[in-house]
Batch of 3 targets.
Target 1
Amino acid sequence: MSSQTLTKTWKSIWWIPLTKGILAIIAAVMAVVWSHQTMEALVVIVGVYAIVDSVMTLINAQALRGMVGTGFMRAWGIIGIIIGLVLIVHPGFSLHVIAILIGVWLVLLGVAATGFALPMRFVTEKAWAWMLGGGIGLFALGIVILVYPGFGVVAMSWLLAIGVLLYGVANIAIAVSVHKITNSISSAVRRDPRNTLIEGEVVDSPATSQETSPHRELK
């Protein structure tokens, strides 16, 4: 995928990580607000959110096909949908089984977020680090739940809220950064189509550099 094609693609889909981030924050707030409800209610919230986030991940992967990591994004999207459906269809599983499913989901979400963050370091300056931090945090929380699956509803709600909130903030940071960078690149390319993109930076074409250099005639 060429740099200009990649820029055009990100310009048209930057709203996906933004929406994922907003939905994640809403889900985190709901998990805290409903922390004193039954485990079934919490499980349904997690299941619905897992499905919605996974569907949007599949859309994102399809739009970015050819970019490093999109194959893993597709795999995660499918796994997330399966886990979400299981949680919705069987919210009455024992607390131990539910904890294991949620723990696995958080671990996989953390791995997916980390895998997505690494190639994004060539597109964004700092936002990729937010996604990397969110991915590591999700992975750590998932491990904690898997190792100690005996958490009650309130504790589980807060752990989920923290993890999903980190994920949401990271997605919003990615969206805002990508939107800003793609607008900047688009403006530069409109000024001179010969300009190109290298690791997120607009680089003047050789011809443009020669035209603007005061020493262009020096040998």
Target 2
Amino acid sequence: MERYSASEQDTEALGRALVQRLQPGAVVAFTGDLGAGKTAFVRGMAQGLGIPQRVTSPTFTIVNEYEGGRLPLFHFDMYRLRDADDLFDIGWEDFLRRGGICAVEWSENIRDALDEDTLWVDIRRGMTDGQRIITLHGPGLDGWDPDKPEPPEGRTT
């Protein structure tokens, strides 16, 4: 599924819509250009979960944890990891067992460690300054229209 975003607010709105479909333990893996809007998308996910904290990039901490919403959100930045082996040194499996949503920036560095049920979000710069091309693929997206709100019982994945 390909979507176009004309602003940071549009990107956040797509994150808010996607998170409504996610169940505890879901992993959303991000790829894309530096500064393309991965953190803005995750900020929208946090908003959709009802998390009140300010969402920032975990570049130097590797993971930021956000609680206080429908589910906890674990926001990872794998830029500094060499490979999937490093992932297990930071307690990846523990985060998966905690029943939250794992949002993983720079997921290409740990691709080998991600399960087949991972949702993938690629964000690239478009033709104009503010435009982004957002490509989503993975289980549970067939027939999903992010412009149509879903009732809570409609959540999948």
Target 3
Amino acid sequence: MSRIHYPRTTVSQRRLLFETWEKTKYVAKACRAARVSERTFYYWKPRYETGGYPALEQFASHAPRGPARTAATLEQEVIEQRRQNGSWGKRRIADELGKKNNWIPVISPNTVKRILQEAGLWSAAKTQSSPTKFEPVSRTAERPGQSFNVDLCFVPAEHEKEVKLPAVSGSSGRLVVERVKSEAGAGDYPGAVFADEQLDYAQVMSAFVAASKAKEEASPGQKAVTETEKLSLQARKRLLRQREMALTLERSQVRAQRRQEDAAWQALRHQRQAHSAARKQQRLETETCPAWGSKKAQDEQWCQFREQRRQQLNQRYQEDDIWRQKRLDLRAGLSDLGLNTRWIAVLVVVDNCTRQCLGLPLFVAGSNLTAEMVVEALLVLLPPELQFLITDRGTHFTAKVFEQLAKGREFIHVLIARHRPQSNGIAERFVRTLKQWLADKTWQSDLQLAHLLANFLVEYNDRPHQGLPTPGLSPNEFANRAWLM
């Protein structure tokens, strides 16, 4: 079938085209009346809506435009984005500007780099040449909801802006917390003299030799003091941990004793109720009253039991106050030594295809989190079309209840290789992004942390993501387009 050729339209054709369209509101009828194509109609429509009929008088100039120079307003916006977000690179800034333009790119990453270089805001990253090594092949899910990456993230129950969020691992069933490196004494070594640029080479070398000799000739007493301080700190930590374990054991014994006392009291109550019911039944059947004084003696004995019970409960309240104070003292001592005793676990569930995060349920149980709690949260979040669930080999994901979840929901549980967290890199990178976002936030309770997580979830799913097959789109936008395709 040959293609129809339409010659260039005249002014009268264009006027007739839009007059007919204004009357009928049908594009096809207007095009037939003016004998033009619908493509011509949509070509002139923006100019007609902007300037009316006078805008239809002349064609747009075909003369070449000015040089392809980025608009000054766009350059200024790039500079402002860089100043407000110093950690953003060229690709992130270009993606953010595209997001404001309804996900249509307005500037390339290299143009962003050029603008930042001209403004003096670009520092070239140092590249290190590495030997050729094996690069594993990675693949992602083909459609949304097909595969999910799951991981656990542990954060302190309380956090201040100045305190660094440590790396925490819970795969072994107990929390392994990263040791925060001390900055004290970082420059106290002989080689630090080479940083002094005011000294020439001979002076620096002489200073280095003198500092090395001074360190070697340090008095044994100073070394002994340092070792004593280290040992005393370790001994204090060990002593506090022993006290904490002893307090926990004592509390469990007290609770076991209280359960026995409560069971004995309930037995007395049931015995009194049964005796009262039997006495009423006997009086109804025989129509005679029991011997005088027997009920009074029983009531007096019951009052004595109740008074003993009240005293017992009052004693419990006092013991509980003492136990709480001891626990607070232990936690204060551990906090003074730089040890965090309260943690909150956050479950991370990320779509392998779209990088969407379905939710961030938190658990105040922290280090006492169980596999049952994780499964209960996943039952709410996981979609029915799930085929693969990727996790590490932590105790929370290798329990029998997790295997039952996989069989019940009919998906395959994929366990990554040991000591290879890169295999679950999507979830691991999400945890890193989450902790970077929380680093400058403050919270004092789990409710405040939950509010922060809700804000992060909305921001993360709607911001440009560089790991998607279509760079520059957000997880939400990519998911919408994926479902349409």
